[in-house]
Amino acid sequence: MAILADPVRVSGVRHDASTFLRRWAVPRSLADDVALAVSELVTNAIKHGLGTVSLRMRNADGGELRIEVRDDSPDPARLRTAGDDDVSGRGMFLVAALASAWGVSTDCTTTWATFRIPAGRS
Questions:
Q1: Residue 90 class from Cβ within 10 Å (0-12 exposed, 13-18 middle, 19+ buried)?
Q2: Where are the domains of the chain?
Q3: Fold of 2-116
Q4: What pLDDT does residue 2 have?
Protein backbone atom coordinates (compact mmCIF):
# COMPACT_ATOMS: atom_id res chain seq x y z
CA MET A 1 0.00 0.00 0.00
CA ALA A 2 1.51 3.33 -1.07
CA ILE A 3 0.92 6.18 1.36
CA LEU A 4 0.96 9.88 0.64
CA ALA A 5 3.68 11.35 2.88
CA ASP A 6 1.25 13.49 4.86
CA PRO A 7 0.73 13.05 8.64
CA VAL A 8 -3.03 13.37 8.08
CA ARG A 9 -2.93 9.97 6.34
CA VAL A 10 -1.70 8.03 9.39
CA SER A 11 -5.14 7.52 10.97
CA GLY A 12 -6.51 6.14 7.68
CA VAL A 13 -3.58 3.74 7.36
CA ARG A 14 -4.15 2.57 10.93
CA HIS A 15 -7.84 2.00 10.14
CA ASP A 16 -6.97 0.02 6.98
CA ALA A 17 -4.46 -2.09 8.92
CA SER A 18 -7.07 -2.82 11.59
CA THR A 19 -9.51 -3.94 8.88
CA PHE A 20 -6.98 -6.44 7.51
CA LEU A 21 -6.19 -7.71 11.00
CA ARG A 22 -9.91 -8.37 11.65
CA ARG A 23 -10.16 -10.25 8.33
CA TRP A 24 -7.20 -12.36 9.39
CA ALA A 25 -8.93 -13.08 12.74
CA VAL A 26 -6.01 -11.66 14.73
CA PRO A 27 -6.99 -11.47 18.44
CA ARG A 28 -8.14 -7.97 19.41
CA SER A 29 -5.36 -7.20 21.91
CA LEU A 30 -2.67 -8.22 19.42
CA ALA A 31 -4.43 -6.34 16.60
CA ASP A 32 -4.40 -3.20 18.74
CA ASP A 33 -0.64 -3.58 19.31
CA VAL A 34 0.02 -4.16 15.60
CA ALA A 35 -2.12 -1.17 14.61
CA LEU A 36 -0.20 1.03 17.06
CA ALA A 37 3.11 -0.21 15.64
CA VAL A 38 1.87 0.51 12.10
CA SER A 39 0.99 4.06 13.19
CA GLU A 40 4.41 4.61 14.74
CA LEU A 41 6.38 3.20 11.80
CA VAL A 42 4.34 5.10 9.21
CA THR A 43 4.61 8.31 11.23
CA ASN A 44 8.39 7.88 11.46
CA ALA A 45 8.66 7.28 7.72
CA ILE A 46 6.59 10.37 6.95
CA LYS A 47 8.40 12.54 9.48
CA HIS A 48 11.99 11.38 8.99
CA GLY A 49 12.01 9.55 5.65
CA LEU A 50 12.14 10.60 2.02
CA GLY A 51 9.93 9.98 -0.98
CA THR A 52 7.04 7.58 -1.15
CA VAL A 53 6.08 5.66 1.98
CA SER A 54 4.68 2.15 1.66
CA LEU A 55 3.25 -0.40 4.07
CA ARG A 56 3.27 -4.15 3.64
CA MET A 57 1.60 -6.54 6.09
CA ARG A 58 1.98 -10.31 5.88
CA ASN A 59 0.28 -13.00 7.87
CA ALA A 60 3.01 -15.59 7.43
CA ASP A 61 2.80 -19.30 8.04
CA GLY A 62 4.07 -20.36 11.42
CA GLY A 63 2.01 -17.87 13.42
CA GLU A 64 3.95 -14.73 12.60
CA LEU A 65 2.59 -11.40 11.46
CA ARG A 66 5.10 -9.06 9.80
CA ILE A 67 4.76 -5.39 9.01
CA GLU A 68 7.19 -3.49 6.82
CA VAL A 69 7.28 0.25 6.23
CA ARG A 70 9.50 1.56 3.46
CA ASP A 71 10.67 4.99 2.36
CA ASP A 72 13.62 6.18 0.30
CA SER A 73 15.80 7.47 3.12
CA PRO A 74 19.16 5.74 3.62
CA ASP A 75 19.05 6.70 7.32
CA PRO A 76 17.86 3.75 9.44
CA ALA A 77 15.19 3.95 12.12
CA ARG A 78 16.76 3.79 15.56
CA LEU A 79 15.86 3.90 19.20
CA ARG A 80 16.22 7.39 20.63
CA THR A 81 16.37 8.61 24.17
CA ALA A 82 13.51 10.99 24.84
CA GLY A 83 13.54 13.30 27.83
CA ASP A 84 10.68 13.50 30.29
CA ASP A 85 9.46 16.75 28.75
CA ASP A 86 9.84 15.67 25.10
CA VAL A 87 6.55 15.34 23.24
CA SER A 88 7.94 12.88 20.67
CA GLY A 89 10.81 10.45 20.19
CA ARG A 90 9.34 7.32 21.79
CA GLY A 91 7.88 5.62 18.71
CA MET A 92 10.58 3.02 18.18
CA PHE A 93 10.59 2.22 21.90
CA LEU A 94 6.87 1.45 21.60
CA VAL A 95 7.46 -0.74 18.56
CA ALA A 96 10.33 -2.55 20.32
CA ALA A 97 8.16 -3.12 23.41
CA LEU A 98 5.15 -4.43 21.47
CA ALA A 99 6.80 -6.53 18.74
CA SER A 100 8.50 -9.91 19.04
CA ALA A 101 11.35 -8.45 17.00
CA TRP A 102 12.08 -5.43 14.86
CA GLY A 103 14.85 -4.28 12.59
CA VAL A 104 15.94 -2.42 9.51
CA SER A 105 16.77 -3.83 6.06
CA THR A 106 20.39 -3.87 4.93
CA ASP A 107 19.76 -0.91 2.62
CA CYS A 108 18.14 0.96 5.56
CA THR A 109 14.99 1.81 3.59
CA THR A 110 12.61 -0.66 5.28
CA THR A 111 11.80 -0.89 8.97
CA TRP A 112 10.04 -4.10 9.97
CA ALA A 113 8.42 -5.61 13.03
CA THR A 114 7.13 -9.10 13.70
CA PHE A 115 4.42 -10.25 16.06
CA ARG A 116 3.66 -13.79 17.25
CA ILE A 117 0.08 -14.89 16.73
CA PRO A 118 -1.10 -17.12 19.60
CA ALA A 119 -1.39 -20.85 18.81
CA GLY A 120 -4.64 -21.78 17.15
CA ARG A 121 -4.85 -18.42 15.33
CA SER A 122 -3.41 -17.56 11.94
A1: middle
A2: 2-116
A3: Heat Shock Protein 90 (3.30.565)
A4: 75
3-state secondary structure of 32: helix
Name the helix (H) or strand (E) containing 87: none
**Is the distance from CB of 10 to CB of 46 less than 8 angstroms?**
yes
- Between CA 76 and CA 82, with CA 74 as vertex, the angle to 5 degrees is 30
Rg (CA), the chain: 14
Across the range 111-121, mean pLDDT stands at 84
Q: Which amino acid is at 97?
A: A
22-58 pLDDT, tens per residue? 998 899 999 999 999 999 999 999 988 888 899 999 9
